[in-house]
Amino acid sequence: MLKVLVVDDDAGLRISIKSILINSTSNKFDVDEAFDGLDAFEKIKSTEYDIVILDVDMPRLNGIETLRKIKEYQPGIIVMMLTAYATIDHAVLAVKEGAYNYLSKPIQPDLLIELLDKAIEAHRLISSIAASSPVMMDSGRKIIGNNAQMQKVFNIIFRLSKVDTPVLIRGASGTGKELVARAIHFNSARKEEKFVAVNCSAIPENLFESEFFGHEKGSFTGADQRKIGKFQYAEGGTLFLDEVGDLPQHMQVKLLRVLQEKAFSPVGSLREIQTNVRIIAATNRPLEDMIKAGTFREDLFYRLNVIPIFLPQLSERRDDIETMIHLFIKKFNQAHCKRISGITPECLQALKKYDWPGNIRELENVIEHAFIMENSNLITLRSLPESILNNLGISLLNVNEEHHSSNNKSSAIFNHNDLDDTDDFSDLDNEDNLLFDHDNNNNNDHNPVEVLSSVSVDGAPLDFNLQKELFEKEFIIKALKQFKGKINQTALHANIPKKTLLRKIEKYGINAKDYSIQ
Ligand SMILES: Nc1ncnc2c1ncn2[C@@H]1O[C@H](COP(=O)(O)OP(=O)(O)OP(=O)(O)O)[C@@H](O)[C@H]1O
Ligand SMILES: [Mg+2]
Questions:
Q1: Secondary structure (DSSP) of 150-179
Q2: What is the pTM of this model?
């Protein structure tokens, strides 16, 4: 028997939930009631509950405050929030704070039972895995996160990598959704199999089905070859559905079916193909609003949202900024053959103050920009993009930043020796996205590259490949801006094959969606 506590100030609702649970065919629930948060907390102190079903909007102690108290007192308890549409934002917040999931009123009996079953299953799986320090890295990249919120995320990632449930990663642009998805895959039992990322916002609507499930030769105009889809390609591994909020409605139905039945049929075929693929989805769109507006299916949402992960904005985790700068400096030292050894205190202070609307991706781009602009061996305020200096109200005319020569390491935030401390990349150097090889940086105070990097044309390094890449990146961004981030149109009008465009976009860490509302 599972002990359940139903907490709602509406007595009628409590009674109807109680009767749904008691009359459910599984017959496994023993249900108590509490009329508000304080009453609930008193009951939790005297009885051990497995599940609490908690209304968001209650007098005296509201749902969120009650959740916090309950979780503090008994962290392992499963809490399911109940919400009216008006309070859905609070329910989402509650999930961020540790509630398992939420259910909209009016309560649908089947959905309530289904969600509780899932919660119990996920809880059983997860609590059987002892929490331990996760190895947070994937193929060549490293996830930084000393901040407390990120430590919680890491813990979930570690546990999630040991189970096979779907995951929904939520977070603003550039917060690390894909990196987290990769970390889950590369720490899981599927790590030897493929991690296949599909960007749902980059697929033309009429090609979705074929992209996902493949097609038979001749099944539609242009299908002159049989083709396998991403599900088959990822067989045994993980399929990362990025920007899942952009999935058109007819594909939402099809995806739901695959998740339920673990089988699909290629376009133009009657064959059923069994699939064993773990789904990790990500989005920065407000799925709750989309459900309300009828553009995202609630049943698919619940399927995907078995265990949600919310990634904080960089501005909510400023304590990680310095470590990230450190990481990116290492990365770009290799990529640009430079020997930048650190950042000036003034510059670091400025970067810690900035709000980072584009999050970690923006920080990474700013450090790369600084690498290109900087002629000394430290990143200084002078090498930051003008937009950031303007935003922070810093005028270079008034800046009295110390001049840092190559030998002046004492005032830098970190120096060459720091470059060797933490990396665990050594077994990963077969990956083409390996960020840097720190061995190349070891104790090499004599630095021939610095001399080279001081050869410049119009103030920029005289390096053909570097300049070519800069041009490409700038060109692609301009073209995307012009076509509002639309991949197909950009490829067509800028005369770039779509595949090449997508490859370059990935290579330069460009986010096409950033340009959709210019
Ligand atoms: N915690 C982290 N530590 C180190 N690097 C990170 C971290 N999070 C993100 N990054 C880096 O920031 C960049 C953006 O990350 P990622 O692509 O995973 O974000 P995203 O949330 O998927 O962004 P978008 O919504 O724009 O697709 C990547 O280069 C990634 O390696
Ligand atoms: Mg992404």
A1: HHHHHHHHHHHTTS---EEEE--TTSSHHH
A2: 0.65
